Structures are given as structure tokens and as C-alpha cells.
Structure prediction request, 1949 residues.
Amino acid sequence: MNNTLLSITIALLFGIGTFMILRKDIIKIVLGMTILSHSANLLIFSSGITGGKTVPIITEEIAQHTTGIIFTDDLVNGILAPIVPEGTEMLFVDPMVQALTLTAIVISLATTSFLLILSYRVYKEHNTTDVSKVRRLRG
Amino acid sequence: MTDYEMIRNILSFSFFAGGMIFLFLGMLGLLRLPDVYNRLHATTKIGILGAFGVMLGIVMKVGFNSMGIKAITVGMFLMLTAPMAAHMMSRAAHRHGVGLCKESIVDEYGQSYYKDQEKE
Amino acid sequence: MYHNIPILLVAVPIFFAAITVFLRSRFKLQKALNTTVFAGLFIMSLALLLHVWENGIVVYEVGEWGKYGIILVADLLGSGMVVLSSFISMMAMIYGQDYMDKETALDTTFFPLFNIMVAGLNGIFLTGDLFNLFVFFEVLVMASCGLIVLTGRGDHTPMLYKIEAIFKYLVLNMFSIIVMLTAIASLYATVGTLNMADISVKLAQLSAAGTMPWHVYMIALMFIVVFGYKAAMFPLHFWLADVHPSAPAPIHAMLSGMVIKVGIYGILRIHYLIFPDVLFLTRPIILILSLVTIGVGAASAIGQYDLKRMLAYSSVSQIGYVLLGVGMGSVYTTTAALMYLVNHAMAKSMLFLATGETLYHAGTKDIRKMGGFIRTSPFLATIFLMGSMSIAGLPPMGGFIAKFVVFDSGLEAGFYAPVAIALLFAIFTLFYLFRTWMTIFWGELKEPENESDFIARSPTPQIKVALALLAVAVIFFGVYPEPLFALASEITAQLFDPQPYIDAVLGGQVR
Amino acid sequence: MNIGILQVAMVFMALAMIPCMYRILVGPTILDRVVGLDAMTTVMVVMLGVYSFVHESVFFLDVALVLSIISFLGTVAISKYLDEGVVF
Amino acid sequence: MDNFTAIALAVFLPFALAFVLPLVEKLLKGYIGWYAFSVALLSFGLIAWVLPVISDGDTIQGSIRWLPSLSIDLSFYADGLSTMFGLIVSGIGMMILWYSNGYMSKKEDLPRYYQQLLFFMGAMLGMVFSANTLQLFIFWELTSITSFMLIGYWRNKPASIYGATKSLLLTAGGGLFMLAGFILLRSITGSFELATLLHDPAAIASLKTDPLFLTTLILIIIGAAAKSAQGPFYIWLPNAMEAPTPVSGFLHSATMVKAGIYLLARIHPLFSGTEAWFIIVSGLGIFTMLLAGFLAFRQTDIKAILAYSTISQLAYMFTMYGYTTYHEPGIGVAAATFHLLNHATFKACLFLVAGIVAHEAATRDIRKLGGLRKEMPITFIIATIAALSMIGIPPLNGFLSKEMFYETSLEMGHLLGGVFTYLIPAAALLGGVFTFAYSVKFIDGIFLGERKKEHLPEHIHDPSFNMLAPAGLLAGLVVLIGLFPSVAVHYLIEPATEGILLENVDLHVKLWHGFTTPLIMTIITLILGILVYTKYDDIGERQDKMNVRYPWLSINYFYDMIVDGAKNKSSVFAAFMQPGPVKPYLVSLIVLFIVLGAIPTFFVTATLIPANLNFNIPLYEGIILGLVIISAIATAVLRKYLQAVIAVSALGYLVSLIYIYLQAPDLAITQILVETLFTIIFVLVIVKIPQTFKETISTPVMIKDLTISAAVALTVLVLSLNVNQGIVAPFESLSYYFIENSVSLAAGHNIVNVILVDFRAYDTLGEIVVLCLAAFGVSNLIKSGVERK
Amino acid sequence: MKKLFVYSIDLGIVWCFVSGNISIINFLFGAIISYLLLRPLRALYDNITDDSLEVLILKIPSLMRYFMKLAIEILKASIAVAKIIIQPTINIKPGIISVPIRAKTDLGITTLSNTITLTPGTLTVDVSDDRSILYVHCIDIDDADEIRESIREELEDYVLEAFE
Amino acid sequence: MTTLIAKTVTKACVPIAILFSISLLLAGHNNPGGGFIGGVMFASAISLVYVVFGLDYIMSICNCKWEKFFALGLIISASTGFGAILFGHNFLRSTFMELHIPLIGEIELVSAGIFDIGVYFVVFGSILYIFKSTGDDE
Ligand code: NA
Ligand code: NA
Prediction:
């Protein structure tokens, strides 16, 4: 996917989300939060290494080819990260960011659900969905 | 490439393409048809057909391996659920007060015929 | 056995949180079990700290995946914070068992949520992985939110206020968490790893080569938003005065005592380990903001009639002192900040626990409606006085030594104006705390109630034990601060030279 | 060849999504929006089929199956809400 | 027992014995006062035990390990100065505790009273024997706190609370400044060890040239002045008179208020001999001396008169300690030190008398008192001796130090020359005149003149032995020191002066040393004093009138304004800072995010936005991402909840489509599932929330919010574009490891799943804990609403 | 009890489909899970009359016929609606008509209603409370009775045969 | 009340969805799926019942204590971690063995799978708990 376009999308989503959480209507704020979460999730996702084209599931068709990547950290010799030999091509898309995004999505589900129920309770207690009126605690 | 494979490929591709074309038409219907009930016709029937077509295309291509089975399952499931979803939506629309479009000629279900469409 | 302690400190409370769900309404068993677990956690954390102090950093590879998995690192900072959180949470737990409402809190979600809250704290303090830090941040926040709703006996907060407070807390928190995610993702995209030590090494390489991408600075500063929010640093402090007072006392004590310290911990951990090159930017920013924090907190506290709210503003102000120590940025000031952090944690949690009981005793939150309680509860008066003295920085309480080292280190490092401002607001602190103490405990009994009515609402023995133990700690660190100072110095040394940390983390074997 | 098919098919499907989006945006009735959303999921199921077909990968069909089951749930829930004013 | 142990014990015994007081209270029954008395006696004895050593010119020093990391130890230092102070503290303490046996009613909370007094005594002793400044400060603040507690002894009286607050704020708060001064001193000289510093001429020399010298001095003097009620800080002392009278006598006249004087004396070697020292210290002293002496006129409470007199007398000492020049440092030191001792005796005595009068006559209002000489003859005699000593009538001890004061003033005036030759002695003289006036008033108002029947009880008589004896003893001391000054001078004053000046001092104090200028000044003082006394009440009335007309003339006015105003100002400030709605808080969070994001852009040397951006956008991607944006905008724009929810749902599905396109089926499934669950929860909530509120966004708000949002978007865009340049070479992603090892080491083919449940299972554990928390939290929220009904 | 057993076998087949692997072992595995699963859910199926396994097997041919019919109808339906859609101007006469039905069982009514929805120009909106009438939306009504007739003849028969 | 059409379709769909959820759970290690996805799928199936049959009806059939399920899930997941400690390894150390069962063939038993089952329980338990408490209100 075109990185520039994705970045622009992420930024726009971030902006729209920000605009929405500045609204007065409590439900709009919650929706704004979900949009912000989408933006963050996409950002995490886009932070992976690019180049891979395949779903990161190792099927029987895709033979396990040895890549010669070195993994053992050896600080003495200055080996810090996977050392990828020249010419090694990434077959899969980055699975790590997928896992991270997945975790982030689930966590944002949990928090947003909580926030949503909370909004309902705010409405119940304050009898309004206008958060600018939710201001008993002040001073 | 044997003839059999050739035929299979062509068949699968035509199912595939046909499904997509139908789907596209269905969505066009969504855009063009006058009221929500008519639009449901478009999305339900043609959508299902489109989906089914593509799924069949897959089955044609790969046969009854796990992928083919999954494809069939998807199609069957859509067939099971889409009508109910359409039923729920149209019922909800009617009971929610969404009137039929002005071209409509009969409403034996309720008295909401010709209602203002803008009501939400 | 020391080897396993880091994970046990996190996993055991999580496990017991689940167990307690099955033990609902078996109150005696819950009480015994939770007390045991928390005492066990405290002992384990203490053992871990001593072990780390003696033998160096303990690294625990969850799942034995080395830096490719998630690593728990118990260095002195982490294990020290864990000891602190374990101690305070133990007291809060002991206290809470008598304080919280039985039907709506103890028999429902208090025990699991509290356990998980502690797990969240320990998880944050021990993790060596950036993304895992985020996960445990969320654990902590969600646990806090769940706990704030619960009610206790001295908790005269209408549900209306609690809901509003949580709402603000959560909305603000979600934005800061999204900022955190953005920062973490950006960092991962730049160096390809989430292990903090690993990131540190890689950024150091970039820095040495002069090829550090400029957006790393941006990321580093974004973390200030994240941790500054947690620490209630100006201008991110607004939630605190609303949220903390809305919580029932044991939770209030945890929030003010420990949870806001997470922000400080984060700054110390992330900025010293990962972004040492950006400290030239972060330090002045924190310094300036810390001064405003001190001022805003203190200036707002004076006019409060709601006791809990006043103390919450005091927390804002006090956290400013910790941040000041961090922001001034020398070895000694950072040591001072850590000492301040510990002493504030002890004293504030004690003060909040005492406040909970005082409010129960008084039957109101309004300071103006209180008075003369020294006759009806001299115990609370003493505890409250000790807490106030410590926060105000009066000897012989721990807070005095803390304030002293902050001033001493600041002046030594040449930060005359900041110290002067801090000094000025220290007098504010003295003023509002003592005035409050006098209003509550001196004067005539305000309500036309009998003295015996008040005495009937006195702390239970269990609550007294919790408060007394905290009081002992508060005074101990005032009379004999040497171990704390030595520890804080060691921690600072480790912060300023992260190489042992990095070696410990990256030296492990991978399966 | 596959990539070519994929690109054409994808564009085709993406275009098919525009009417759904239009309904979601414009309505005019709330049910139109629901129908639009429902149709969108149908398009997505087909899209997943296309992916699957082109990549010859079963994984996207798992997604499709999940989508068909779950979007049905969403539609039913919203419809029931609009119909009866409650969800559960 | 060595000398150091004696000193340490003298300090710690009062603390220890005070701590155990509540435990042994039951055993002691009625003898609790005697217990306290014996503690004081013990300390006195211990200090007296080392006196011979000290008076020989030796010092005692030693330390106990305390804070090695900060190189601070608990160290004690006993020289002439501290020993004299120690003896005053414990000696007067003995008298006061003895007196308290008679004074304090059995109904009072005696354990607390004696415990606090003992704490105070211990703190005071600790303070004077401290060898390092930090320790000194600690004990210093302890004296402030105990003083605070004792002022508020009758803690349900508003006046007590007011007085206690004031004293704490000024003394403990001033102490903080002093601490800062000490820290500066340390940073200049490198040590907290005062005792070593005193004997380090090089360090002292460097201190005096340090640019921070003046700041350090001022900070320390603020502490001293606040404690000794000097300058504008005097205002706490009159209000401190709410304490029981023995306490006033002990803390607020004889000992604690002298802590500031002690500090001056202690740091004298470090700071004196500079202009700053002279100007600040003696300037403050002269100002206070005259002001307090003058203000005493309008006091009607006998304790208040004594309080103002205390302030004024302390100012004498301030003034004299300030009298230094480059050539002759410390010309006033001996006089000040002697006056310090004398003042302790006569003022404590006067307070005891005041206590007796108040106790017997049941009032402290001088307007209601009068003519008690017949009913309380012994008291009258005692009082008169003490008052005359304060005026400076021979052969009482006050006369000796007053003469020395005049002498010093003359000498200082002479040294300074010019107009000061007359001004400085004149000021001293005026101080003496005021002293005369209020001292006479004290005696006259209480004991002489007509007995005012209407205000007084019928039977007034001398008090019990326990109250009379300590006062009598002190009066006796006043006379004895006056008659035989050489003993006190030899054992106390000389060593103390040596301790201050750090050189051998040979003092010759005699009652009669010829018809000298100071004697003439004394005579003038008496004459002027009589003249002023005839106008005494008149002056007092005028002062009252002035005070009514110009309230801002008083420092108390400003104190009250600040303290009372603080509350209102703070409320206003807090209300301004925390208006309540979440939006401003959110805005500040977001703005900080933007600002912090923008700061690094000033350091960018290359380009802000990477040059090699790829704008080759496939149509499909364009459409999908366009739809994503459109659905997000729709969410923002659509007004009804359900419409917006449907739009956001569509957004979720479209996002999952991106995941699909980017080959992430697990993620896409998760996104789809989460989206639907979210929709359901949303609808569940919308069911309960009727949409009654419709937000209308005004144009300015719209512009503001759009600007903020745009700035945020820009920040994220810039970050994202830079970040999307990929992992910086030569680093590579950890993903390689997972890809390589997921099958061989974790036996899983779905790498994402393997990461979730194996490589990073710990994260997943946290994640499911968050889910549990959400469930618990939601249930708590819902239950919290049910209960209320 | 027996009903659960039958359902378990049905679901065993479903399991094969959803898990994407048709084999005896997998089927048995699925059947076992299904049985365990259905036990707590059994209350849902209480009001469904028992079908014996033999009857079920006997119905397979009619089921096949039904599905064939359905497939054809769907294709026809789609083409019909597609025609309407691609016309330059849409010219339709929609409306909702009531269709009396013979099907009595839940399964029968449901299948019929779904079938109607999937077939040309018709869409079930609701079923009457007495379960005797389906309200059907038609996209283009030339003759309402004709539509009722075609439903009865072309769909209901197949449905009744296969599902009742 | 929803119609009998909806109810009947639901009766058919629910077991299918549940089976699918189990399949996703079990296949997760090698195919798309896993504990979370399976758990949400399960929750969706049950919530379909909630939606179509109404909460009251379900409560009359069985009043499931969903909090016990997610607590159990948490115990399962955490126990996987503790189990490794009992075997002298680090928390959450995974292991696997290949079993050869006659008729079935090779089966890989993965300890992480147990962890995933815990996740499954937690996910559906907590989601349904949220649904139930929210829907139950008033
Ligand atoms: Na949805
Ligand atoms: Na998975």
C-alpha cells in the first residue's frame, strides 16, 4: 500500500478524531475516541517492515527456506539485531505489528466499551449528553 | 494445461466475473432504486448471487479442499442469514414508520403507505 | 527462587484476582487470603530489592524468548518502586477490608480489581518492553476506574461526582494512551524492536554515528505527554483534583500514593534509558512545567473546603516537587526526586487513609463542618498531623529529608530561582495543611451530636494497624533516611549509566 | 495475470462500495443506512472471495465467514433496536 | 560518662522521657509535674556537669553516625555559648515546670502539657548543641512545632488557633528560608558542619567574598528574625500569648524566641565584620526595638505588654550582635550575651508574675487590675525587682547589661562617625525610655493605684508556694547576678563570648565603674521615662485611633489580608483553572502534544518531510482510503447517534479492509468482530440515551477546533511520513526471529497467533486482564446506578 | 434426547464445513463437540418436534430438489432485478401484499419466507401473528394474485415437501 | 418480540457460529483465528440469542454467571504460565509435543493452545458479562 497515502489517511483520521473529542455531545466524543484508536492502530500497523507480500501464516506450500539470519545477540562483536544477509527478501508481511495492532484493538475495545457505558451513566446522573454541562467537579 | 483444467478455469473465472458483475449491479440498485424495500431486493438477492458466484468460482478453481469447503460454507451461510436480515430490516423499516415510495401501489401490511420518506 | 520473583509479583495478583471471583461472599476467607497474598507480595518484593541491591539486576525472560519476547527487568528503580507499591497496597488492602462497603464492594469486585491494580503497578515497574508498558498502563487505568466507582464508609462522594470524574479521567487518558501508542509505533518503525534496552543500544548507535533521525526527538517529547499525564504535571493535571477525591479512601491512597508515581517512573525509565540524547530538551521542559505544577497545585489547594479535594491539589503540588528534582537533572537532584517520591507516597497514602476515616468520623467532607475531633479521635489527629508534617516538610518526618535534599540538590546544581519558587510554595503547603489540621481537630465539635456518637465512628483496630504501620514508615524515613538515600543514590547511578541494565537484558541466552 | 485480475476486480469492488457509502451517508431514512452497511459487508465478503480466488489462499475465506456471521448479528441488533426500541 | 555522652543525654533524655510519659502516666498519678521537673533537673545537671570544662575554654564535640551518604552525622558541639544556652533552657525549664505544678489545674490535660514541654526542652537543647546546620534546623523546626502545639494548648479557642497558625507559619516558614540559607552556606563552604566551619578561617574568608554571601545571610537572618519575632515577623509573638502563661514564660520569652539570637551568635564568626551584617542585623534590631517598645503602650493585656517588651528586648540583642565593623568585630557581643542571660531571668520572672496575677485575679486586663500590692505583697516585691531590672535600675542585673548596651552604642556611633555618633546612642536611649514606660506601667497597672473592685474577685492573695517559689528564685537570681556579676560572667558570659568571638575574652563587669557616659544616659533615660509615662495612656489611645483610621499601618493587617485573602483568591484561581467541563482540559492536553511535537522541528537540519515520497497511488487504494476518510467525516458530521454509529461501523469495516489488503487476516477478523461488538454495545447504550441535545457549533469555536485538529493532524502526518521511511539501517525488525522460529520453536504456523500466545503471551495476558477489568468496571458502573434508586 | 443426537450429527457435518476439513474423524470430533454444546442450549430447541433420523434421510431427495429450484429461482430473481436496475429510468410498481401460507411448522414458515426473499421480486417483510399470512414486498406488481399463486405453486410445494 | 422467522434462523445459526468459534480457537495456531477471535465469535453467537430471544427469555432458561467464565479463563491462562514454573522453566515457557494417534495421524499438542483456551474463556465471558449487565439494567 502506498505509504504516503496511508500516512495522510492516518493523520486525517487523527485530526477528525481530535475534532470529534472536542465536541460537546458525549456520544460524539466516544466515537471520536474510536476514530483515534483506528488511527493509532493503523499507525502501528504501518510501522512494520515493508516488502513482504504474503499472509504471515506458514503453509505447507511455502517451504521453510533458511535465510541465514543471525539472531543471537553478541554485543561484543557489535551484533545487535537480526543480521539479514544481502539479498534476503521478506516473504511475509511483518507479523509483529499485526500482533501488536491486535492487542491494541482489543484493549481499545475494552476501554471504549467502558467509556460508552460510562457515557450512559453520565447521562443518567446528569440527565444530559452535553458534556459542557458535566461540571459539578470544578474549582 | 489439460482441457479439463482449461474448462475448469474458464468456468471458475466466469462464475467469478459473473458474481462480481451481479454484485456491482446490486449495489447500483442500492443507489438507484426508490425506497428502502426496493433497495433491499437489490442487495439481498443480487448480493447473495454475487457472493455465491464468487464462492462457486473458488470451488471450481480449487475443488473440494479446505478452501473450497470454506467457500461453500460462506455461500451457504449467506443464504441462510441474508434473507432473515432482509426480513428484519424491512420489518423494522415498516414498523419504524418508513413509508413506501410513491410509485407503490399497494400496502396490505400496514397503513404507512406514501409516508414521508425523510422520517428517521 | 529469586529468579522467579519478578513474574510472581505480577502473575500472582492476577491469578488471585480470578480466584477471588469464585470466593464471593465468603468474606472471612477473602480477607485472610488477600491479606496473606499482599503480605507475601510485600515480602517477595523486599527480597527482590535486597537481592538486586546485593547481586545486581535480575532479568526475567517471560517464555524464555530473550529480547525477542518480553523481558521483565528488576533493576533497583523497578524493584524499589515495586517494594513501595507492595507496601502501600498492603496497607490499603488491610485498611480497605474494614473500610469498603460490604455488599457493594467487598462482595463484588473490590478484591479482584484491587489485586489487578497491584499487578498493573508491578507490571509497569518491572517490564522491559515498551509495548508491554502500554498494556499494563491500560491495566492500571481500567482497574483504577473500576475501583473508583466503589463506595466505602467514609466516602461521602455522590455517585454523580464519581461518574463525572471517571469520565474526565478516561477521556483524557485515552488521548494520552493514543499518543503513547503513536510514539511506541513510531519508535518501533525506526529501530525495529520494542525491548527498551535494545532500543537504547540502537539509538545510541545512531547517535554515535550522527544519523539519529530527527523524529526520535519528537517521539521522546511525546512521551512527556504520556507520563506527564500520569504524573499530573501541568497542564495535564486537571483530572487529578476531580478523580482522586472521588475514589474511596484506600483507592485514593493508591492513586495518590502510587499511581501518579507511575508517570515519574516512566519519565525516569524511558528518558534516561532510551532517550539520553534528548535529555537536554526534556529536562528544561519538565523543570518549567514542574514549577507551574507546584504553584498551581498549592495555589488551588488553599481555597478548598472539601478535604479530599484539598489534598488532591496538594498531590499536584507535591508531584511538582518530584518533577522539579527530575527536571533539574543532576545526579543529586534525581536522587532527591526519588526520595521525595518515596516519602510523598508514604505520607500521602497515610494521609488519605486517615482522611477516609476522618470523613467517616465527621460524616461530611466539608472542612468547615468539622472541628474538635482531637477529643473524639486522638489517634486520627496524630496520624493526620504526622502526614501533614511530612508533606509540609517538617522534621522529624520523612518529608523533611525529602524536601531538604530537593532544595539542597537544586541549589548545589545552581537552580536558584526554581528552588526559591519551590521554597515559597513549601510555605503555602505548610499553611494549608496545618490550617486544615487545626480546623478539623481543634476547635469545638461542630455538629450538635454527642461526643459518643463520634467516638462510635472511630477507626477499627485493623484500620489502626494499617495507619500505624504507615506512620512508622513515615517517621522511620525521617529519623533514619540513610538506607533510602543510599538506595536512591544507587538508583540514580543506574539511571545515569544504563550500561549494566543493557548488559543484563541483552546478555541472556535465547532458546 | 493474477495481479491484473486482482487490480481490476478490486477497483470494481471498490466502486461497488461507493453506493453503500452513499446510502450510509445520505440515507435518506435510517434503514437505508442500515441497508447500506449490510450491503457493504456483502461487498466485503465478495472482495474476500476475490482475494482468496486470486491469491488462492484460504485465509481470507475465514475472514469472509466471520464477516458474514457477525455482520448479520450487527444488522439484526440494529433492526431490532429500530423495531422495538431495545436490543436485548 | 564522658562529656559528649553527657551532652547527648541531656538532649535525648527529655525526648525519651517525654515519649514514655503517656505510658507511665497512670503510675505517676498527681506527680506528673514533678516527673517533668526532674527531667529538666536531670538535663540541667548533665549540662552543669560539663560546665567546668567549658568555662576552662574547652569545647566538647562528638558525633553519632546518621547519614553517611550525605556526610551528615548527628553531631553535638558544646562551647561556652551553647552551654550557657543549655543551662538557661534547662534552668528556666525547671522553674517553669515547678511553677506549672501550681499553675495548671488538675482538670487540664496534664500529660499532653508536660509531654510537649519536655519535647520542647529536648528540641531546644538539641538545637543549641547541634554541631551541624542541618541538625540545628531539624531541632529548630521541632521547637516551632512544639511551640505551635503549646500555643494551641487550649485548642478549642479560636484565638489559640489563630495564634498557633501565625506562629507556625512565621517561625516554621521562616525556618525554611533559613534551611535554604544553610544549604547555600554548605554549597559555598562545602560543609554542614558548623563547628568545624567556625574554626576554618580560610573557608570563612572565602565565604565573605562569595557572590552568594548576601543571599545566604538574608535567608538565614529571615529564619532568625522570624523565630525571634524581629522586624515584620514580630506579629506572631503577641498572639502566642494564648498559650498557658508558664509556656509563654518559657518559650516565648526566655528560650525559644532566643533561638534566633542564638543563631545570630552562632553564625557571628561567619558573617560578621561585613557591612551587610551590620546593616541588616542591627538595622532590624533598632527598628524592632523602637517599634515594639512604642507599640507596647496600647496593650491592655498584661501578657501582651510582656510580649512587646520581649520583642523589644530581643531587639536589643539583635542590635548588639549586629554592631560590628571590619576592625572591631563583635564589640556588642559581650553585652548582648549578658543581656540575653539577664533577660531570661527577669522576663521569665515577670511572666510567672503575670501568671500569678491572672490566676488569682482572674483577669489579665490591665484596665481592670490595680492596687494588688496589699493583697499580694510577695508577688508585688518579686514583680518590682524583675521590672526594675528590665528598666535597668542598679543593683539589678538588667542595669549591668543595659549599661553595656549604652556603652556599646556609644562606641559604635563613635566608630561610624558622622550623624551616627548621635543617632545610634539616641536610638538606644529611646529604647530605654520605652522600656521604662512599659515596665512601670506593668507594676503600676497591677499593683499600685486603686483596687478596681468591680472587676476583681473579693479575695485575692499571694499564690501557693509552688507558684511563688520559682518566681522568687528567679527574682533572687536577678538580684544575685546584679550584685555579684563576676560569677555569672566567669562561668557563663566569658565562655559564651569566647565561643562567639573565638578568641580569649576577659570581661570586667562591675556594678560601679565610675560616673561614665552610659550612667548619664541611664539617668536621662529615667527622667525621660517619667515624662513619657505621664503621657502613657494618651499615647496608647492615639495609637488606637491611628490604627482604626489607618488599618494598613499594622503588619497584622497585611498578614490577615494575605491569609484570609488566600482562601478567596485561591478559590477564584481554582475556579479559573478548573472550570469543570472536560474540553479545556482536553485542549490543554492536545495543545501540549502539538507544542512538544513542534519543538524538535526547530532542530531539523535536513528536511521536515522526507523528499522521496511515493505518490504513485493505485486507484483501489485511493478509493478505499477515500472511503475511510469519508466515513470518518460522516461520523463527525452526521447528527443522530445511530447514523453516526453506522458511519463509524462502516469505518471499522473499511479499516479491516485495509488490513485485508495488507495481508493481515487475523487482524481483519479481529477488527470486524470488535467493530460489530462495539456497534452492539453502542446500540445498547443508545437505547437508554434519548438524543435530546443537539450541538450547534458557533463559527469561532469551529475555527478554533478545526485549527487544533489540523495542527494535530499535521503533527501526526509529519511524524508518520518520517516514520514510514522504515527501520533505520542497519537495524532489522524482530519479526525475522518470529518468522524463522515460529514453526521450529513454537510449533505454530500462524505467526501472528504464535506471537500472541507464545512469543508475547505476556502481553496477551495483560490484554485479557484489561478485558476482565472492562467487564468488572461496566458491572460496577451499572450497579452504581441501580443502588441509588 | 434423541433429538440432540440427531442435531449433533447434523452439526458434525457443519463442523466439517466450518473447519474446512471433511473426514470421518473430523466429523466424529465435531459431533461430539456439538453434543456437548447442545446440552446447555437444549432449551432453545424444546418446542421443535422430534424428527427421526430415517425421516431425515428420506427427505434428502426432496431437499436436493428444493435447493435446485432455489438456485434457479435466485438466478432468475437476480436477472430480473438487474434488468430493472440497469434500465435508464426505473419504472416499477412496488407494494406489500399478504400471502396466505400452508406451512405450519417454524422451520417450514421460515424456509418459505427465506425462499420468498431469495426469489424474484419478492421479499418477506413479516409473518402474521397467527402464522398464516406472510407479508411480502414485491418490487413490481402487475397482478398480486399471480404472485401469490406463483409463490404457492413454485415455492411452497417444494418447501413443504422438503421441510415439513 | 422478534418474529418466528428470526428465531428459527437463529436456532440454526447459533450452533454453527459456536462450532465455528471452536474451530477458530483450535485452528488459531496454524490458521487465522485463536482465542480472542474464537471468543468473540462465541460471544456473538450467544448475543444473537440475546438479541433475537430477548434477555428475559434467556434468563428464564439459564442465568449464566459469565464472570465465572472469564475468571476461569484467567486462571487457565495464568496456570499455563505457572505450570512452566513448576517444571523449572520460566513463566509462560511454551512447549509442544507431536502425538501420533492411530487413525487420526500426527497431532501437535501445544501448551500455548491451553493459554489460548484461557483467552477464549476470558473474551466471551467478559463480553457477555458486559452485554448482560448493560442489557439487564432497569
Ligand atoms: Na457493525
Ligand atoms: Na490469532
User: Anything to note?
Assistant: The first strand of chain G starts at residue 96 and ends at 101.
